[in-house]
Specification:
There is one protein chain. It contains eight helices and seven strands. The chain is of the alpha/beta class. The protein has a single domain, classed as Rossmann fold. The strands form two sheets. A five-stranded parallel β-sheet has the order 2-3-1-4-7. α1 crosses α8 (201-216). The longest helix is centred in the C-terminal third of the chain and has 24 residues, at 165-188.
């Protein structure tokens, strides 16, 4: 089983991807984790990646594709994998398809979590974090005992810059502009599984597993 997970920031993609990977016993492979591991291990590839990131430039597709496909060739991926955070563009998708075809493999399905933009803004703008101990809260779902105060250490809670409504809307606009062609690319291949990401994590998970049955048979 070889899956790709897509979804806008705040859609709950990480939570659902982990649940799917656990259920089917396959590794959850994140492109960000791959980059961090290469950099931490000071591999030649990691040094190249770090040089691009430190200069503020995008890592070129050939380097990104090489890092990802190298990870997918590892022993723990022999029976399948769930790829999160890659591909992000149609060009990267085509490169991934080519690398898989060279090994006589192909994708099983591509999951796209769909959540209305304003629902995501509400989710993310309600987040509050503790700058002292890292505790995480939400104004609607995970409220601290005292308003604006961390339960664990008593520090004042703050809103991260990335979670401010105007920032969230900008991130969503950029995501949809970048990935819209990718959604159509996989739709044309008959691989796209569009899942309603609204509701509780358990409700989303139930819908996701039910829809995946048509592609993975279990």
């Amino acid at each position: 089983m070889r899956l790709v997970f897509m979804g806008p920031p705040g859609a709950g993609k990480g939570t659902q991807a982990k649940a799917v990977a656990d259920r089917y016993g396959i590794p959850h492979v994140s492109s960000g984790d791959i980059f961090r591991a290469e950099i931490e291990n000071k591999t030649p590839l990691g040094l190249k990646i770090r040089s691009y990131l430190e200069s503020g430039a995008l890592v070129p597709d050939p380097i990104t594709v090489g890092a990802v496909t190298g990870r997918l060739a590892a022993k723990d991926c022999a029976k399948g994998w769930l790829l999160d955070g890659f591909p992000r563009t149609e060009g990267q998708a085509q490169a991934l398809d080519g690398a898989l075809a060279a090994g006589g493999r192909k994708l099983s399905a591509v999951v796209n979590l769909e959540v209305a933009p304003e629902a995501i803004v509400e989710r993310m703008s309600g987040r509050r974090v503790c700058p002292k101990c890292g505790g995480s809260y939400h104004t609607l779902y995970i409220k601290p005992r005292a308003d604006g105060v961390c339960d664990a250490c008593g520090a004042g809670l703050v809103t991260r810059e990335d979670d401010k409504p105007e920032t969230v809307r900008q991130r969503l606009a950029a995501y949809h502009k970048q990935t819209a062609p990718l959604v159509e690319y996989y739709r044309r291949q008959g691989l796209l599984v569009c899942v309603d990401g609204s509701g509780t994590p358990d409700q989303v998970r139930a819908r996701l597993f039910e829809q995946l049955k048509a592609f993975v048979g279990q």
